[in-house]
Structure formats: structure tokens, C-alpha cells
């Protein structure tokens, strides 16, 4: 059952519905972010098929599914700072459909092409409707210099934008050349109508965004890392049907049981363990 606790104001909810994104400044403290970063680095260092790399290098670009393999992240996706907001914005009980940590390293982080998220979850995983959203927790200060996400505000109202797949197979959903990248003609039309915006904030901030908003990011040419921890929450009634999709669990979570707020504070519980 949904817990009727609404951390966002009506104005914040309305702003999210209109623009397709919302920034909450400094949700997590600097000490809490250090705990998150240490656990994220442990995932980057772990030899696992869940990792992806910048093309032609040994630089980790991202890692998926940590909440299925690490007790800390399994608890973190249920902290009230995230779970209660996800429930409020989706007006539903939720589960985590996908979890990933993206690392756009200083001088080395390459482009994320323009795309929508829902087309992957719909075509690859069988998610019926665009009733999902993502929370991007800033593990570093996100500025105009280190490759922030760029959105076309309001583009979620265009619905799913059908594009031809570049390659076959689920493995192509992880490559730098995105399988369902948006065309320049589509982007020109959307940007002419709605403009562009690059939400920024200090580390510990949380950026919420709709699964159908058009977004991408430029290479990180700065000397500053830009790491994001991304949690995708989906309405439990919008879960893919049993047997749908072929991607592994760490890309498309098959357990759609409604999440409950974690007992206690995992960031405080592990602070001693990681030396924060």
C-alpha cells in the first residue's frame, strides 16, 4: 500500500509534470555522498559483466544492477528521500526496474547520444506504459563544464518517438552508439518548440526525470568527474508481463514487488564500515 507521505509541494509536482524533470538541491549531505561514492567505486572495481567501458579503453563508463548484488544499494533504493518522492510523482506503489551508476570521468567521459529511456524498456523489456521515472543522485557537483544531462523540457508529452534500431540483440542497448538514438530532424523540431536546459547542482542533489523526456549529454572535457547514481522506479501495475524481454535481470529487474521504506538509515549504518 502507498504510504501517504508527500515530501514535494504541489508546485514542485506540477513543475515536474509540465517540464518532465525536477531538481532537489542537496538531498544528501557531503558525508553521505562520500559513503555512496565509496560503494560506487567498489562496484567499478569489481570484475563483472554488469560493467561497461568507454570505447577502446579500460575506463568504466557504467555499472548496472548493483541493487541486486549489494545489500547497501538494495537498502539505498528504499530510503525515504527517494522512495516517497517516486511514489508521489507516480501516484503508485513502485519497484526498481533498473539501477545504474554512470561515470563520466574527467577528460575521458564520452557523449551519451540523444534518446528517450522508455523505448528501451518498452521494446526490450515489455514495459507497457510510460509510467516510470528516474532519480539521478549527483555524486559530484554537476556544472556546465563536466557533461551535465541536457533535456528538452516538455518533450515527454510527445510520447514514444519511434526510431529504427541500429543493431539487433540486447547487447546493443549498452553500447556508446545507442540502439535507439533520436534523429537530428526530430531533435531540431523538439528543440525549436521547447528549447534546451541542463539541470545542475551540488553533489547530493537529486534530479528526477520522466521516462519519455528527450535527453543526452556532451563529453566531459573538464578536469572534474561527473558521476551519477540512477534509480529507475516503475509503477508496480506497469511491470512487464512474466517472460517478457530477453535482457538479464541486472538490466531489467524481474521482481516487481512493491518497495517499502527501509528500516533505519543505510548511509549512517555503513558510515563506520567505509570510514566516512
From TrEMBL:
Domain of life: Bacteria
Entry-linked InterPro entries: Phytyl_CoA_dOase-like
Source organism: Micromonospora echinofusca
Any one Gene Ontology molecular-function term assigned to this protein's record: 2-oxoglutarate-dependent dioxygenase activity
Stated name of the protein: Ectoine hydroxylase
Amino acid at each position: 500500500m502507498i504510504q501517504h507521505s508527500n515530501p514535494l509541494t504541489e508546485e514542485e509536482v506540477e513543475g515536474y509534470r509540465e517540464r518532465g524533470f525536477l531538481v532537489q538541491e542537496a538531498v544528501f549531505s557531503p558525508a553521505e555522498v562520500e559513503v555512496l561514492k565509496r560503494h560506487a567505486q567498489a562496484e567499478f572495481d569489481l570484475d563483472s559483466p554488469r560493467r561497461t567501458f568507454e570505447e577502446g579503453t579500460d575506463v568504466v563508463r557504467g555499472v548496472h544492477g548493483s541493487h541486486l548484488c549489494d545489500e547497501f544499494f538494495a537498502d539505498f533504493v528504499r530510503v525515504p528521500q527517494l522512495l516517497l518522492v517516486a511514489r508521489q510523482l507516480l501516484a503508485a506503489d513502485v519497484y526498481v526496474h533498473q539501477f545504474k551508476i554512470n561515470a563520466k570521468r574527467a577528460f575521458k567521459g564520452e557523449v551519451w547520444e540523444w534518446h528517450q529511456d522508455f523505448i528501451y524498456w518498452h521494446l526490450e523489456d515489455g514495459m507497457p506504459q510510460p509510467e516510470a521515472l528516474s532519480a539521478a543522485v549527483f555524486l559530484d557537483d554537476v556544472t556546465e563544464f563536466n557533461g551535465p544531462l541536457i533535456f528538452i523540457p516538455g518533450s515527454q508529452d510527445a510520447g514514444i518517438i519511434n526510431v529504427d534500431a541500429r543493431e539487433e540483440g540486447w547487447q546493443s542497448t549498452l553500447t556508446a552508439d545507442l540502439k535507439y538514438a533520436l534523429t537530428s530532424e526530430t531533435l531540431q523540431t523538439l528543440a525549436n518548440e521547447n528549447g534546451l536546459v541542463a539541470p545542475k547542482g551540488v553533489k547530493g542533489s537529486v534530479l528526477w526525470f520522466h521516462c519519455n523526456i528527450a535527453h543526452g549529454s556532451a563529453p566531459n572535457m573538464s578536469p572534474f568527474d561527473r558521476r551519477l547514481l540512477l534509480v529507475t522506479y516503475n509503477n508496480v501495475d506497469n511491470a512487464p508481463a512474466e517472460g517478457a524481454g530477453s535482457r538479464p535481470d541486472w538490466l531489467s529487474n524481474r521482481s516487481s514487488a512493491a518497495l517499502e521504506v527501509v528500516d533505519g538509515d543505510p548511509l549512517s549504518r555503513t558510515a563506520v564500515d567505509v570510514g566516512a
